[in-house]
Amino acid sequence: MSVRVGYFPHNNSLFVLRHRGILERALPDVEWVDLRALPQPPRADVKTALPSLHSDYLFGANGYDFIGTGFTPPITALGNDRDIVYVGISGPRIENGRLVTKAGNGIESVADLKGKRVGIAHGSWQTTLLLFALDRAGLGWSDIEPVDTDVHDGGALLLDGTLDAWVGAYPGLAAVEAEAALHTLVDTESVFSHPSLWFTRRDFAEGNRAALEAIVTALQESDAWIEANPRAAARYFVDDVVARGGTADLDAWEAALRGRPFGIGPVTEEFLDEQQRAADLLAANGLLPERIRVRDAVDPAIGEFVARRQPTPAN
Question: Which CATH architecture has domain 97-190?
Answer without folding.
Answer: 3-Layer(aba) Sandwich (3.40)
